[in-house]
Write a structure and sequence with these properties.
The complex is a heterodimer. By secondary structure, chain A is an alpha/beta fold. Chain A has 12 helices and 12 strands. In chain A, the strands form 2 sheets. An 8-stranded mixed sheet of chain A has the order 6-7-8-3-9-10-12-11, with helices on both faces. A 4-stranded antiparallel sheet of chain A has the order 2-1-4-5, with helices on one face. Chain A is globular and about 65 Å long. The longest helix of chain B is centred in the middle third of the chain and has 18 residues. The N terminus of chain B is likely disordered. Chain B is globular. Chain B has an 8-stranded mixed sheet, with helices on both faces. A 4-stranded antiparallel sheet of chain B has the order 2-1-4-5, with helices on one face. Chain B has 12 helices and 12 strands. By secondary structure, chain B is α/β, with parallel strands linked by helices. Classes of the chains: A alpha/beta, B alpha/beta. At the A-B interface, helix 7, helix 8, helix 10 and helix 11 of A face helix 7, helix 8, helix 9, helix 10 and helix 11 of B. Bound molecules: adenosine-5'-triphosphate (2 copies), iron/sulfur cluster and magnesium ion (2 copies). One adenosine-5'-triphosphate binds next to strand 1, strand 2 and helix 1 of chain B. Chain A: It comes from Micromonospora orduensis. Chain A: One of its GO terms (molecular function) is ATP binding. Chain A: Keywords: ATP-binding, Nucleotide-binding, Transport. Chain A: This is ATP-binding cassette domain-containing protein.
């Protein structure tokens, strides 16, 4: 790969909704053509990061650069030239497609929004190959969203997102509303398109098996902040942060024999709130390994390879205890 | 982890030949066709199947929760008492006390203007004729039982003041308030983070262990099934197509739909650069009348004329007597790793 600019650079991103500290200092870079998965618990701020990147909301602070251009505070008009560079696919295909528009109009919509008047003939000519690319027949262009299945609707929203040939695709839980078998077809499709077209992707999900299948890199979010970053291989083989370890331990595997041999890691149930995050390490109220310092000092981001982990127990060489095997009473000795 | 021995335990719930259809403006929709199911005391049965295949309708028919428009035939017996066609007053007595239902959406089934303690207390006041005081105290116990920290404090909270995982636990506390014999949990952990999900599954297991409750858990997450179910029922287009102890089902699916489902989920260690996920081409049919054919035939790699001409019965498959499948040409062994 030559020296294309990074598809996405986020620096110290902050997004507060009144008192809700949805995103509180997130930094993340996605190189051109790479897939980064953003995982983390419900309400941790994953979608909000995605919404800041496509500028559905204007960040409270921080910087968002797309393909090298700072778009953090651009107005709607100023954003236009950058619209083509980034697109988003939302979780719920039923809710994100306008029920009164024909599929063909939906797919062509981004062209219109980018300020280009596309005559009807040309529109149809542009839409047909887009639909084919996502495995839909060209006739689908003349149907309404409710006449399609969930998986077909999700293909339509992917076609719409890709019509402008973006450099970066934000996929916000693109498969979680779908059945296992339909999920498989959408994941295959994303993998094929990503390989063929070479866009970068921020893949937001809480399905770790989908992450392992699709991602190159992983960022783990907890209560508005990133707690760990790293390559897919490293995170699955040697997760360093207790929350990442707990996530991997808690994701059940679809194999009863193996699943029942695994050691459950039950986290504390004191779920904190983005209105009033805990002092020190935000994970400490649920962390099985938390000790005094965790309540008083914000943990440093310990570099591990290209990534990092933010935990007091991770040593400078990137090693540390593992909640999946550690006995909490012995960790500090 | 204990596993209920289905053969020796007493059957609490017995469903036979259950069919449910709905008259709609565009014609009849056949939602369930001839479903059969047993729940032994203290057993956890998992139910899987593609969206729209009739899982919730089957579950609701157990709890007598189907809308009045539903046409129901067949039999559902709870400890020998027939529930299909029973009077609403009789059903109301059964519901809550003996059979409880956890709906998929905790926020829409909790009352936003009442504290969770009041809501649990009301169930107890109605069904157990408890005083308000006693009901309040019992509500605190129940919240503790389902693993809500500082229950004495949280009993006074309104639903919006709790996280998604805690609301789901409140729903479970309400469902188990009267110590039901049967609990139907319809997608109880969908949309929850896996660390919270693990806690909820533990609560369900504890409930079975402590009170001997039988649980039917409906989900599309095969990991959840692998984790908690003793036996599994697989539905497809309104019919039960396979039924087996959990390890048997995962080790050796006989129905092609089950095999397709199992191989569609991503396997640990695989990446898109080297592997593709197996897909099941085609869509679940919505049927107005149930055809005399295998309803999976259109999507099945092994289908032939026989499959399109007569419906395969649910029969004992292989050597185990408790592994049933409805297929004319059952899958050969080890079809799962077929997706390269
Ligand atoms: N417009 C808004 N106004 C107020 N609060 C908001 C708004 N949007 C999001 N939030 C809050 O910000 C936090 C982060 O929400 P976000 O949707 O980004 O989480 P998420 O990680 O995507 O969760 P999920 O996995 O459930 O989709 C939550 O506490 C949420 O309630
Ligand atoms: N009240 C109703 N009136 C008409 N049709 C209905 C009604 N309730 C359910 N159905 C239909 O019955 C079929 C089975 O629905 P059911 O809700 O049991 O599916 P499910 O397996 O639970 O699906 P999901 O996984 O999406 O929850 C569907 O085709 C559905 O549209
Ligand atoms: S810093 Fe402390 S509380 Fe936070 S994850 Fe590490 S050990 Fe747990
Ligand atoms: Mg989200
Ligand atoms: Mg359902």
């Amino acid at each position: 790969m030559t020296s294309r600019p990074n598809a996405l650079e986020i620096e110290d991103l902050v997004m507060h909704f009144g008192p809700v500290r949805a995103v509180d200092g997130v930094s993340l870079t996605i190189a051109a053509g790479r897939v980064t998965a953003l995982v983390g618990e419900s309400g941790s701020g994953k979608s909000t990061v995605g919404r800041c990147v496509v500028r559905l909301v204007e960040p409270t602070a921080g910087v968002v650069r797309i393909a090298g251009a700072d778009v953090t505070h651009l107005s709607r008009r100023q954003l236009r030239p950058h619209r083509d560079a980034v697109s988003i696919v939302f979780q719920d295909p039923a809710a994100s497609l306008d029920p009164r528009m024909l599929v063909g109009e939906i797919v062509a919509e981004p062209l219109r929004l980018a300020g280009r008047r596309v005559p009807r003939r040309e529109r149809e000519a542009r839409v047909a190959p887009q639909l084919e690319r996502v495995g839909l027949r060209a006739e689908v262009a003349r149907r309404y969203p409710h006449e399609l299945s969930g998986g077909q609707r999700q293909r339509v929203s992917i076609a719409r997102a890709l019509v402008s040939e973006p450099m970066l695709l934000i996929a916000d839980e693109p498969t979680s509303a779908l059945d296992v078998s339909v999920q498989a077809s959408v994941l295959n499709l994303l993998a094929d398109l990503q390989r063929d077209i070479g866009f970068a992707c921020l893949f937001i999900t809480h399905d770790l098996s989908a992450v392992e299948y699709l991602a190159d890199d992983i960022a783990v979010m907890y209560l508005g902040q990133l707690v760990e970053k790293g390559s897919r291989e490293r995170i699955f083989a040697r997760p360093a942060h207790p929350y990442t370890q707990a996530l991997l331990a808690a994701a059940p595997v679809a194999d009863p024999v193996r699943q029942r041999q695994r050691q459950p890691v039950l986290l504390g149930d004191d779920l904190p709130s983005a209105l009033d995050p805990p002092s020190g390490c935000r994970f400490r109220t649920r962390c099985p390994l938390a000790f005094d310092t965790c309540a008083t000092e914000v943990p440093p981001q310990v570099p591990i390879g290209d990534g990092m982990a933010a935990c007091h127990l991770v040593r400078p060489d990137g090693t540390g205890p593992d909640v999946r095997t550690a006995d909490p009473s012995e960790v500090l000795s | 982890m204990t596993t209920a021995p289905a053969s020796t335990a007493t059957t609490v719930l017995e469903m036979r030949d259950l069919s449910v259809s709905f008259p709609t403006e565009t014609g009849t929709v056949s939602a369930v066709d001839g479903a059969a199911l047993d729940l032994a005391a203290g057993e956890i049965v998992g139910m899987v199947g593609e969206s729209g295949c009739g899982k919730s309708v089957t579950g609701m028919s157990i709890a007598g929760l189907l809308p009045g428009s539903a046409r129901v035939t067949g039999s559902v017996r709870l400890n020998g008492t027939e529930l299909v066609g029973a009077r609403e007053s009789a059903l109301r007595r059964v519901r809550g006390r003996e059979i409880a239902y956890i709906f998929q959406e905790p926020m829409t089934s909790l009352n936003p203007v009442l504290t969770v303690g009041r809501q649990i207390g009301e169930v107890l006041q109605v069904h157990e004729r408890m005083s308000r005081r006693a009901a309040h105290a019992r509500a605190v116990e129940l919240l503790t039982l389902v693993g809500i920290p500082s229950a004495t404090h949280r009993v006074g909270a309104y639903p919006h003041q709790l996280s998604g995982g805690m609301r789901q636990r409140v729903m479970i506390a309400m469902a188990v308030a009267c110590g039901p014999k049967v609990l139907v949990a319809d997608e109880p952990t969908t949309a929850l983070d896996v660390t919270v999900q693990a806690g909820i599954l533990q609560v369900l297991r504890d409930l079975r262990d402590r009170l001997g409750t039988s649980i039917l858990i409906i989900t599309h997450d095969l990991g959840v099934i692998a984790d908690i179910a003793d036996r599994v029922v697989v539905m497809y287009a309104g019919r039960v197509v396979e039924r087996a102890p959990v390890t048997d089902l995962f080790a050796r699916p006989y129905h092609h739909y089950t095999a397709g489902l199992l191989s569609a989920s991503p396997k640990p260690g695989r990446h898109a650069s080297t592997a593709r996920l197996a897909e099941i081409p085609g869509l679940v049919p919505v049927l107005s009348t149930q055809p005399d054919a295998c309803t999976f035939a259109d999507r099945c790699p092994a289908a032939d004329a026989r499959c399109r001409e007569s419906a395969p019965p649910l029969e004992v498959a292989g050597d185990g007597t408790d592994h049933l499948a409805a297929c004319w040409h059952p899958c050969p062994p080890q079809p799962r790793e077929a997706n390269r």
